[in-house]
């Protein structure tokens, strides 16, 4: 039995960039939505405040080094850093990953997780990813779709251009390699993405690696990855609301019908809040991993979840009842199961998703309690 390496997913959206200044106002980072969060019910801890009011700026090297040191000291092997390459003209929020790439004072690994989708406003009907819908509140009312930054996969010359950038990370000693293959996660899946991956695999071999080790998050059930390529179950999304329990389906089905009708007839209706029970979500996750031990699946886990800072009362999801003791109780079982399955990795949601209530970093409510629990398990 070999213990898996634990990576915490990492959001780089805590430093100013021109695009955020343009779209949401000067100085916007995810800290804006975190600070402005509201308590929505009795006992709802919002806003969440980082310990010692440490609203850090991730364009500053010392802050990234501080994060890496804490993560290492508490047993975390590395960070899965979100990567926002939209097209040849737009690659944003790159600074933290580049600090991890270049610094000689960092003793943890990292890999890139590509969020390959359009960057759009939350009111848009264009398919893609939401960014920070609460930030749109002060914007003038808009109608119709608006893509802020288009995602363009392009063809082989564009794939090569993207590869030339990410290879600067692959060449870093700090970048994670699986069997001498750079680890690279891709959230959006398509046949064209697979073509790109084959090209990257070839180019990585030309660079002296044994190919690429890709991780795919959203794939059709029929897809079978190649050797040393993986599927990834991102949690708590996978067991809580992508493949929910019958109880959750029955509870949320009427609202889903209403939402569909509103969308069909163009009715702008507040979708409310969906609540989930921390113990029940973890029980479902534990049962799932017991019954599914596929070697090519990287299984995620989670700390907590509450995306109301970003979505307010319009479609937010809140998992209620989290404590550091409960986290320790469930994660220990989870870790032991994954270890017995000899899987190479566990990915945790998350290191610093403050806007989704999923963070291991110390805060004013719990201090280092979650990290201390994690250290006791991993060490």
From TrEMBL:
| InterPro entries registered for this protein in UniProt | WbsX
**Record-linked Pfam families:** Glyco_tran_WbsX (PF14307)
Q: Would you tell me the protein name for this molecule?
A: Glycoside hydrolase family 99-like domain-containing protein
Question: What keywords were assigned to this record?
Answer: Hydrolase
Statement: the UniProt record of this protein carries the keyword Glycosyltransferase: no
* Molecular function (Gene Ontology), one example: hydrolase activity
Q: Which organism is it from?
A: Bacteroides xylanisolvens
Q: Which domain of life is it from?
A: Bacteria
């Amino acid at each position: 039995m070999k213990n898996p390496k634990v990576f915490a997913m990492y959001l780089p959206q805590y430093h100013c960039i021109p695009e955020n200044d343009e779209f949401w106002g000067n100085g916007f980072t995810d800290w804006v939505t975190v600070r402005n969060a509201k308590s929505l019910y009795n006992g709802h801890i919002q806003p969440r405040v980082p310990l010692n009011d440490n609203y850090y700026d991730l364009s500053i090297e010392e802050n990234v080094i501080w994060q890496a040191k804490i993560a290492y000291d508490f047993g975390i092997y590395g960070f899965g850093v979100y990567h926002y390459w939209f097209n040849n003209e737009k690659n944003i929020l790159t600074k933290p990953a580049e600090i991890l790439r270049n610094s000689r004072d960092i003793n943890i690994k990292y890999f890139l997780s590509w969020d390959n989708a359009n960057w759009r406003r939350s009111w848009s009907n264009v398919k893609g990813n939401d960014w920070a819908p609460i930030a749109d509140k002060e914007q003038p009312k808009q109608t119709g779709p608006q893509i802020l930054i288009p995602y363009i996969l392009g063809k082989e010359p564009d794939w090569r251009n993207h590869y030339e950038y990410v290879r600067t990370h692959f060449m870093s000693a700090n970048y994670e390699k699986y069997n001498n293959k750079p680890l690279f996660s891709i959230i959006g899946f398509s046949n064209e993405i697979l073509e790109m991956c084959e090209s990257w695999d070839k180019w990585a071999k030309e660079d002296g690696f044994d190919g690429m080790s890709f991780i795919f998050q959203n794939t059709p059930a029929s897809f079978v990855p190649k050797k040393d390529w993986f599927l990834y179950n991102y949690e708590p999304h996978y067991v809580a609301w992508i493949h929910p329990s019958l109880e959750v389906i029955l509870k949320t089905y009427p609202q889903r019908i209403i939402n569909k009708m509103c969308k069909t007839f163009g009715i702008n209706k507040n979708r409310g809040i969906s609540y989930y029970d921390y113990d029940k979500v973890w029980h479902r996750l534990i049962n799932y991993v017991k019954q599914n031990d596929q070697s090519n699946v990287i299984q995620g886990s989670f700390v907590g979840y509450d995306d109301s800072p970003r979505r307010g009362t319009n479609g937010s999801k809140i998992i209620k009842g989290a404590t550091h003791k409960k986290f320790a109780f469930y994660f220990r079982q989870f870790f032991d199961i994954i270890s017995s399955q000899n899987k190479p990795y566990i990915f945790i949601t998350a290191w610093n998703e403050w806007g989704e209530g999923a963070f291991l970093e110390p805060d004013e409510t719990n201090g280092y309690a979650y990290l201390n629990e994690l250290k006791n398990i991993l060490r």
